[in-house]
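Below is a filled-in request sheet from our internal design queue. Each sheet records the structural input a requester submitted and the sequence that came back. We keep these sheets so that new team members can see what a complete request looks like end to end.

REQUESTER: design group, bay 2
PRIORITY: normal
MODE: inverse folding
CHAIN LENGTH: 438
BACKBONE (tokenized):
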């Protein structure tokens, strides 16, 4: 999961599109140009991005890039919903008024690629100076759709085990296995006093991305040999484990908890353990919102029956609008913004990048707490490059996959719910694959 958004289905794109112009402040739809011709020197390079610390840092540096290419840059920062809706409006109209697109490789890229909305970057990333092999393998693989490179990762994330150092001293340190996590979380839970051994996402669709690491570490996957894998014994064990963890050691109302509800519980010192994206770590060090900044520790994702197999994903990537009339300049922007120098500079400011070289440079890791940087490094080495099913209709898939999670958290029998979800997901995959081929 990415930390940055809720899943949006193709249908949701359409529902949101009607209000995008006013919400995003991007002008009338008629402003989208579909005409040909070469833009004048005064035409800005238009970049649309999520309002994120990475985008903000790049925006502050755009003057440097403008001097490099001799063209003005116009960068618009939006919420995730506004961004997705704007793309739907503009790209359905073959609009040329966006050049560089910040996209979620695991949420929208497959659909965008299927629709022909993203330019193929395969030849461009082959430039030796860009050093495509320097990008971590898992995020690099996630950039591919149908054998084509459609995006370049710029922000990555993995799940971190956040824990209270003051509470685990007598337990021999942070748990290294899921069995140890369950035992410690249950031992430290005092529900009558409003203290919980574990807090985490439990919302049906939103929890899927974090549950994925539990699934992989139990030896399962969303799709196995092209068919649904969520009815396998490994998936069932992962569902039951995650459900029991929140049911026995978690707060009430866990099935309604997204990132925004779970994170404050840990920040306010009301939970001993919390697993979520490592990109949110700074929230727990902020004295304005955190009561645990003096006692927080960071550890790698704990090992399950199949070992420690967390996700290591590109939460945000850069692509080029296939209809852009400034594709060469758009690529120059990506070369600059995702290049080795910029990646090192931004990671030195605490923004996790995608290049292996910046993860092996002690200077770029100095801004992270030492135990966090080590946890991130290990999780990146062990990680898989996706945290949700890789399908066209990601939102619908997450909704199906998340149903047995809710049953487990509510203390219901998981097997019958998992069987129904498995059958529904199997049918969904058939339909989704037909859409890919159409």
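RETURNED SEQUENCE:
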């Amino acid at each position: 999961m990415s930390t940055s958004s809720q899943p949006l289905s193709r249908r949701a794109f359409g529902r949101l599109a009607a209000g995008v112009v006013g919400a995003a402040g991007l002008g009338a739809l008629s402003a989208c140009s579909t005409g040909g011709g070469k833009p004048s020197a005064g035409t800005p390079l238009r970049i649309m991005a999520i309002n994120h610390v990475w985008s903000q840092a790049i925006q502050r540096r755009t003057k440097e890039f403008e001097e490099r290419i001799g063209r003005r840059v116009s960068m618009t920062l939006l919420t995730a919903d506004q961004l997705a809706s704007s793309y739907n409006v503009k790209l359905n109209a073959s609009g040329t008024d966006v050049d560089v697109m910040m996209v979620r490789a695991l949420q929208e890229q497959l659909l965008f690629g299927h629709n022909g909305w993203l330019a193929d970057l395969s030849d461009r990333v082959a430039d030796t100076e860009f050093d495509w092999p320097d990008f971590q393998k898992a995020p690099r693989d996630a950039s591919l759709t149908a054998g084509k490179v459609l995006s370049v990762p710029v922000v990555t994330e993995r799940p971190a085990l956040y824990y209270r150092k003051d509470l685990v001293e007598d337990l021999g340190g942070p748990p290294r296995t899921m069995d140890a996590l369950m035992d410690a979380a249950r031992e430290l839970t005092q529900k009558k006093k409003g203290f919980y051994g574990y807090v985490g996402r439990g919302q049906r669709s939103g929890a899927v991305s974090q549950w994925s690491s539990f699934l992989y570490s139990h030896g399962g996957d969303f799709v196995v040999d092209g068919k649904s894998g969520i009815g396998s014994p490994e998936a069932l064990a992962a569902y039951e484990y995650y459900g029991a963890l929140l049911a026995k050691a978690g707060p009430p109302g866990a099935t309604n908890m997204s990132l925004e509800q779970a994170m404050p519980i840990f920040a306010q010192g009301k939970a001993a353990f919390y697993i979520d994206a490592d990109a949110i770590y700074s929230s727990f060090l902020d004295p304005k919102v955190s009561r645990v900044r003096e006692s927080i520790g960071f550890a790698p994702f704990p090992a399950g029956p199949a070992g420690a197999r967390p996700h290591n994903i590109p939460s945000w990537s850069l692509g080029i609008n296939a209809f852009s009339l400034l594709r060469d300049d758009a690529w120059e922007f990506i070369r600059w913004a995702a290049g080795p120098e910029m990646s090192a500079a931004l990671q030195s400011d605490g923004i996790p990048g995608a290049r292996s070289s910046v993860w092996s440079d002690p200077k770029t890791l100095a801004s992270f707490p030492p135990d966090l940087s080590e946890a991130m490094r290990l999780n990146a080495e062990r990680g898989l490059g996706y945290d949700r099913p890789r399908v066209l209709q990601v939102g619908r898939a997450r909704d199906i996959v998340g149903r047995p999670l809710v049953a487990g958290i509510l203390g219901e029998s998981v097997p019958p719910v998992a069987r129904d979800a498995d059958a529904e997901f199997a049918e969904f995959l058939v339909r989704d694959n037909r859409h890919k081929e159409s």
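SHEET NOTES:
- Residues 159-310+388-437 form a domain with the D-Maltodextrin-Binding Protein; domain 2 fold (CATH 3.40.190.10).
- The chain has two domains: 10-157+313-367, 159-310+388-437.
FILED BY: M.R.
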